[in-house]
Design goal:
Keywords: Membrane, Transmembrane, Transmembrane helix. With about 140 residues, this protein is an all-alpha fold. The chain has 2 helices and no strands. Helix 1 packs antiparallel against helix 2.
């Protein structure tokens, strides 16, 4: 882009210097000099218009390519992200199922443990009463 700008500036500078020197050293009449200056100005304008169209077309092509590349990369990124999200969800679902099984086992073990502890504590309480009653009888 900077190269195009410096080329354009060099072109304008060259045209201005050339026109000025042409007028100073022209052996032709004023009318002939004006005609040549007019032709030179038209050629310069045509050249500038051509360069403008080329630059505009070039920029437009680059913009379209950049847009296309961006859309392709975006699609690839979204596809990859979607795939990874599916993997994560699958992994989380399997972990959740594993935790549910562990919780179920824990609840089952806990309820079995409470049932045997309740039975054991009731029998211990009964033994304690019998033992205390026997002691009371022996004393009394």
């Amino acid at each position: 882009m900077a190269k195009s700008g410096s080329t354009f500036l060099a072109l304008l500078t060259g045209a201005a210097i050339g026109a000025g020197l042409g007028m100073l050293y022209a052996p032709e009449s004023g009318e002939e000099t004006r005609r040549k200056l007019g032709e030179n100005a038209r050629r310069t304008q045509d050249d500038l218009n051509k360069r403008y169209r080329e630059t505009s077309s070039n920029l437009s092509t680059r913009a379209k390519k950049a847009k296309s590349d961006f859309e392709l990369r975006l699609e690839e990124t979204l596809s990859s992200a979607s795939y990874k999200a599916d993997e994560i969800l699958s992994s989380l679902e399997s972990k959740l199922e594993e935790l549910r099984k562990q919780n179920s086992k824990f609840q089952k073990d806990r309820s079995e443990g409470n049932g045997s502890k309740s039975t054991a504590s009731a029998s211990d309480t009964g033994k304690g009463k019998k033992g205390a009653g026997a002691t009371d009888n022996a004393v009394g």
